[in-house]
Design the sequence.
């Protein structure tokens, strides 16, 4: 009897397993997001300095004055993720009109409905409108659908699947900043004006989506990084051909440390090494290779923050200096040991 029950339970599990999988797959909701595309696709419409390239593909945009002056421009990607059979879209993006000004909007060449357009479909896209949202914000409204028929006039239903760009929207930074001032503004979708439509869904075909906004920060940063005096290992008595590790604490309170470089020379030509942050110690580290006995090594530390401010610690123009010591010849070492030994023996004899 127990064996029969176990077999029935196993059969039910196998039978229901695909259902569980389908339910899980169907529960994945598409996401509508505002992303940082970087300037590469339309460099003529992005003249702001992208301070942190690692923000590309995220919902963060960081700009710093004076590296990025007031009046600089950038644009956003409006992106749909994990959608099935999408047939149209409409968006309403809200922004702070004391910090940003809307300039233009367009569909890039690879937008989600570029395929039906390439096959002769007729775009249905109203003119972009920018309206007051409240006393401090405005809203950009735009949308897109298409009409596609075959040679007999029958409607062709082609839906976009996956992840792609709906449009790109250009803004200008208009906020005047005071030294040390920083502002962060949010771009977000207004649910009343934002909709995604798909085939296979009861009319009008609107589907639920997650909506993810973006953050635009603009900061006044004219303060360079602070570079403390470096430490070297070994601190003294550097042996011939012995590498020297240099460690230094570098900080920047506003935009953060972008690069730290160790520059060293044994003559007139300088060599540069990018220093790496040791997350355990919090220090930037690099290694100077070993040199022959008697070589004098001079070095200095340079740093730059994400706003383009630069600093150098060269020990007030004197540099940080060490000289590789000479090796002690073996014969000299043996003679010294012999003398020491003889002295100890002589001392013991006198004692007794």
Sequence:
């Amino acid at each position: 009897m127990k064996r029969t029950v176990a077999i029935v339970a196993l059969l039910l599990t196998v039978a229901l397993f695909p259902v569980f999988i389908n339910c899980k797959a169907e529960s994945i909701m598409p996401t509508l997001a505002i992303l940082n595309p970087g300037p590469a696709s339309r460099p003529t419409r992005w003249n702001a300095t992208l301070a942190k390239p690692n923000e590309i593909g995220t919902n963060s945009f960081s700009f710093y004055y004076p590296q990025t002056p007031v009046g600089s421009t950038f644009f956003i990607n409006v992106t749909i993720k994990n959608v099935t059979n999408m047939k149209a879209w409409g968006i309403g993006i809200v922004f702070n009109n004391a910090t940003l000004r809307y300039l233009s909007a367009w569909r890039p060449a690879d937008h989600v409905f570029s395929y039906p357009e390439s096959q002769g479909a007729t775009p249905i896209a109203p003119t972009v409108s920018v309206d007051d949202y409240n006393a401090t914000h405005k809203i950009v409204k735009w949308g897109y659908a298409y009409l596609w028929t075959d040679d007999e006039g029958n409607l062709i239903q082609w839906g976009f699947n996956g992840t792609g760009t709906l449009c790109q929207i250009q803004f200008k930074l208009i906020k005047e900043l005071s030294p040390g001032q920083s502002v962060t503004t949010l771009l977000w979708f207004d649910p009343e004006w934002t909709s995604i439509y798909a085939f296979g869904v009861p009319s009008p075909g609107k589907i639920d989506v997650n909506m993810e906004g973006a953050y635009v920060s603009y900061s006044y940063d004219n303060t360079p990084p602070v570079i403390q005096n470096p430490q070297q290992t070994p601190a003294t008595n550097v042996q011939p051909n012995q590498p020297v590790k240099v460690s230094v604490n570098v900080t920047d309170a506003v935009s953060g440390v972008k690069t730290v470089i160790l520059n060293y020379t044994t003559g007139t030509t300088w060599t540069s090494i990018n220093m790496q942050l040791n997350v355990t110690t919090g220090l930037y580290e690099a290694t100077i290779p070993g040199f022959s006995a008697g070589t004098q090594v001079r070095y200095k530390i340079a740093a730059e923050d994400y706003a383009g401010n630069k600093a150098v610690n060269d020990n007030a123009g004197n540099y940080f200096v060490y000289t590789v010591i000479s090796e002690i010849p073996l014969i000299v070492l043996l003679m010294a040991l012999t003398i020491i030994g003889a002295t100890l023996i002589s001392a013991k004899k006198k004692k007794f």
Residues 2-220 form a domain with the Immunoglobulin-like fold (CATH 2.60.40.680). The chain has two domains: 2-220, 226-323. Confidence is low (pLDDT under 50) at residues 1-25. The two ends are 101 Å apart (CA to CA).
